[in-house]
Write a structure and sequence with these properties.
mainly alpha, 12 helices, about 60% helix, about 0% strand, elongated
Length: about 220
């Protein structure tokens, strides 16, 4: 693909978004939750784990722990035992406990609704904060860049960057702000259902006509 101007990239991105929206009209966060707090905990647990794995854990976890105070007062070994079926459970147990202690001590047990306050919590980086803000508070403060979003935005020629924060900056420049949250969902759903890391289904892809990696991505994944 010839080098695009910013205007041309925005126009191509708009067409890609339209195709993904048509393919995944019900795209949404697939971490099970009923509140901002549950989403925060689920997202912390999702590091290097699939949403399905997290949902298995939180099905029982959210019945036992109803509030930040419940996690904060629980002894760490007990919380580790509750999380032991998921990878990095010891680190995640520590992050969840200390995060909840701060929620209780500084925020009255409530999940704050700003990027600055969220990223000040233990175990919460920009990606996690974007998930919570976009899905629990309907605030488009950034674009969630997980492994799917990173891979697809590179394959689609929307960025040449490899670091999440730089990928996010590129995407923010070409995607309308009111669609930042949805855009990440569309890419994540497409990455899970069509544009796999290995053997992407280029021949069936809904946006293949606008992808500079069509066919090539399939060969490179082998």
């Amino acid at each position: 693909m010839a080098r695009e101007s910013l205007k041309e990239k925005k126009e191509r991105t708009a067409v890609i978004m339209k195709g993904l929206q048509q393919a995944y009209p019900d795209a949404h966060c697939e971490l099970d939750h009923t509140s901002p707090f549950e989403l925060l905990i689920a997202t912390i647990l999702s590091a290097q784990a699939t949403d399905k794995q997290v949902n298995v854990i939180t099905k029982d976890l959210f019945k036992k722990y109803r509030s930040p105070g419940d996690y904060a007062k629980t002894e760490l070994p007990e919380l580790e035992k509750d999380l032991q079926r998921i990878g990095l459970f010891r680190n995640k147990a520590k992050s969840v406990k200390t995060c909840c202690q701060v929620l209780v001590e500084k925020h009255g047990g409530k999940v704050p609704g700003t990027m600055e306050e969220l990223t000040a919590l233990n175990g919460v980086g920009r990606k996690t904060a974007n998930v919570v803000l976009g899905n629990a508070f309907n605030l488009n403060e950034g674009v969630v860049v997980d492994t799917h979003v990173a891979r697809l935005s590179q394959r689609l020629g929307l960025t040449r960057e490899t670091k999440p924060e730089k990928i996010e900056a590129d995407l923010q420049e070409i995607v309308p702000r009111d669609l930042w949250c949805l855009f990440s969902h569309w890419l994540i759903w497409h990455g899970r259902r069509r544009c796999f890391a290995r053997n992407p289904e280029c021949e069936l892809c809904e946006v293949a006509a606008f992808c500079p990696s069509r066919g090539k991505a399939k060969l490179e994944s082998r």
